[in-house]
Amino acid sequence: MDLLQRFAEHYNYIVTIFLMVAGLYIVIARSNMIKKLIGLSLFQTSVYLLYLTPAKIIGGTAPILDPAYKVYSNPLPHVLMLTAIVVGVATLALGLALVVRIHEAYGTMDEDDIFEKESDA
Amino acid sequence: MKSISAHLPALVVVVPMLGALLSAFFRRGVLAWAFALVVSWLMPVIAFGLLDQVLSGGAISYRLGGWQPPIGIEYRVDTLNAFVLVLISVVGAVVMPFARRSVAFEIDGDKQPWFYTMYLLCLTGLLGITVTGDAFNLFVFLEISSLATYVIIAMGRDRRSLLGAYQYLIMGTIGATFYVIGVGLLYLVTGTLNIVDLAARLGPAFDGGASRPVLAALAFITVGISLKLALFPLHVWLPGAYAYAPSFATAFLAGTATKVAIYVMIRVFFSIFGPSLSLKSIAVSEVLMVLSVAAMVIASLVAVFEANVKRLLAYSSLAQVGYITLGISLANVSGLTGSIVHLLNHAIMKTALFLAIGAVVYRCGAVKMADLAGIGRRMPLTMAAFVVGGFAIIGVPGTSGFVSKWYLALGAFDRGWWPLVFVILATSLLAVVYIGRVVEIAWFREPSAGGQGVGSAAVDAGAAAAACGGYDLSRDRYGAFGDCRPQGCRDAGRWPEMMLFATPDTQALAAIVIPFIGAILIPLAHRIPNLRETITLATAALVAVTVWGLLPGVLAGGRPGLELIQVVPGLTIAFKVEPLGLLFALVAGSLWIVNSVYSIGYMRGNDEPRQTSFYVCFAVAIGAAIGLAFSANLFTLFLFYEILTLSTYPLVTHKANDEAIRGGRIYLLLLIGTSMLLLLPAIIGTWMLAGTIELKQGGILPADLSPALIGVLLALYMFGIGKAALMPFHFWLPAAMVAPTPVSALLHAVAVVKAGVFTVLKVVVFVFGVDRLHATGASEWLVYFSSAALLLASVIALTKTNLKARLAYSTVSQLGYVVLAGALATSMSVTGGAMQIAMHAAGKITLFFCAGAIYVAHHKTEIAQLDGIGRKMPVTMLAFLVGSMSIIGLPPLGGVWPKWAIGVGAWDAGHALVIGVLMVSSLLNVAYLIPIAARAFFAKPAPDDDDHGHHAADGIEEAPLPCLLALCTTALLTLVLFFFPDRIEALIAPVLAAR
Fold first, then answer.
1. Looking at the predicted structure, is the pLDDT value of residue B421 above 80?
2. pTM for the predicted model, two decimal places
3. ipTM of the assembly?
4. Which residue of B has its CA nearest to A47?
5. DSSP per position, B822-851
6. Is there a contact between B159 and A77 if contact means CB atoms under 8 Å apart?
7. List of residues 6+ apart from B853 with CB closer than 8 A
């Protein structure tokens, strides 16, 4: 019972950690460059959750001062994550562009194959 | 104006960012380049302006958008990041002139404006990381610079650059994300992102202490940054990224990107967490230390075996990053100073190296080791810059690298991790190997047949590299600068009067400076051999006159000297003329004239190639020998000791064939190796024990030192001074025999070995103190050791059939006398040792002159070929006989006195056995020297011994006149010296008198 309660209380964090580790695992374990990028994105996304979880207060609203509301969410992490999302999108776009170029240059986007080609050359 | 200076912290970021935007609008690469050049030259102005403000007015806090920190983003500039800002902007500005040709060569025309956009964005990011005072803002700038970097790398010509960029993207993003996770955790704990505010809230008042989230944050941030700064084993992205990026980008990134990451690490460890939390609460410092050492050793080893020069330099960067993080892990003032100084130094030296290689790529499109053969002769300026940068990487004293390593070693001692000192020095030795490989191939290998010379010389490229290398030369200032202790004004004021060349003080300096000036003038007269040789002779004469001019003053008890530069507190380049040093300088200075005359005859007689560089190196070597003679402290001594090694290396490899290169390798590795691994630790140990490294009458070591410790220190010195050729570190001497004979004469009689034994005597007299050493008996072992060594060397000499090899082992044995004299540690024996320096110099130079004369006239090198040669070369062989007799120690020749004095000294010291050793050794000398002369005069010439067109007729065929003149002079000198031992004794006596 106790365990279940703690699980429920930390539900967001558990999801965060799961995404983080899963993303990192994909990056390390996959040799397909696109899949690696997917893993990387997943990894980055987990950070958004990490920041946003404590910032959102149950029952809180957007921090626009109004006498009707007493409880506000913390706006700062939301703003930070907006920036992080932009960074993430840029990274993903650049990564994909690189994979396109690599595919043109090597005819494959499998890292193992490419290393094999390079060691032959 | 005032309003602008108030906004400098913002302009540091705004200017390059706007520049990046605007340069994207240009259609033509050259215009974009010009625009980027203006922008990047603007940055040092801003950075220096900030530094000036910080130094005069303390840390600056700049509120962005008018929001009060810690609510708004704060830009905060203190001395540390002002310093990093200057570093980045200066590197950015210096590499830009190089960019135009290099980028035009490596990148398609329509992409060039984009390249400059990305370059400026990268610069924006790097400067932003440095200037910001907000942890999350730092992440944003980190990503700006990283994204720009990925693009820049991907623009390389090789398709592997794409792969490098992709790998860097993956690793870099993981690193940045780790960092941002850490920052998130910190935000959860403290509720702030402002660095100052974070530090305050995590400070002593923070009740969480080393709580779990804080430690987790520390771990995430450390790993994240370590990825960005390529700390082993998180470095795998770096070699690929650096090796295949455009040359210009590599030069820029190598100097800046990892440096900024290191800055962040220092900021996080020392500003945010504070060393007690970040380094000491858990074993971060130990882990960091282990990883740093692994980086230094493994990366250096990989570099040693790398065939691609850019990759080699990239691995070298990894090793150098290891040095920097090692300093951080030491967590004391010396260590951190070493880190910060090395941050700057490495940025400059690695930029210089990559620029030099970039220039080579531009010129011949090659980065493979094998393609660089002989490139030094086609691009001398560029490769000279490479050599200077390489010296700095190695940490040769006189370059910036030495200062960093000195601090790191001190830090390691302070921390009590003294084995680290050896690791630091051992990896420096690996640097000697990998830099040496490039230098060797570039300068001493014949160029490959393929004519890939691009018509137009990359003048601006070479100049930029040279400029960067040049910074290394003036690094003393930087060393002080990194320490943020402005100084040097005092010295500057003294320069005009130094130039007057009037007092004995300045005269001493002149004796050192004149050969170096000569070394500069000689290449200018490259095309006119007569003028070139005149300069050599004039320089030699001037040096001799100057040195002899010092004699009366010193005999009268004067000790002229001066302090030139304080490199770092406690380390000064200072000179003091004392009798022992003057004696050595007299020997070196006088014999140089004779040797120059001889060299001219020999080099012309043999029609040797590369004569100009020969004379240049010669002059530098003499300057170094005299600098060594006059050095007032161990640091100056070590500096000139290494200059002497390095300047004689090209002389050894002069012939540039496989044998010469192999000999040169042994020469360089053994001499640098012993000096770095043994001598330098000995000097550092002396510094730690005595608190000074000044050479003082009667020794400097504290009185309460245990004999065992003195013995260990003595061993470090004796074996560390490899030039003294004490067995088992004598191999370099026979290996160096591949050099032209004038070099052998110089090495064996005048400069190198004498510098070695002179250093031995100097250390015995001025560091340990003769009485001290004698009283403690710490040198007892050395008496037996050197006795055995000198006998053994004599026996080996007997077995050698090559004339020069026999003479080499004879030298090893004769040098043993001086070491023995020092070990006996009585005033009489030390006098004998000093005499031996002079007497053996005259005797051995005669023998080598004769050997060279035989080679010039008859091209003979083996003793067996010399039968009957006395009839063809009577004068030469007579001189040889005189020299031999002096070496043996027969009256009426000078060589008798040192043996006499050492024998008396041995009796005083109660080592009667040594007298027996001296006698046996003299007999052995007879056995290996006299038969040569005897064969030459009395044996019948072999009928078919002459394969060089000379007839075996009885006609006299002597060597060219200059050679003959020189060898007669020195032979006469041995005779003359017999009558004046009292003069030498009188000169030396004051050194030993003060008890």
1. yes
2. 0.82
3. 0.95
4. B181
5. HHHT-HHHHHHHHHHHHHHHHHHHHHHHHH
6. no
7. B602, B873, B876, B958, B959, B963, B964, B967
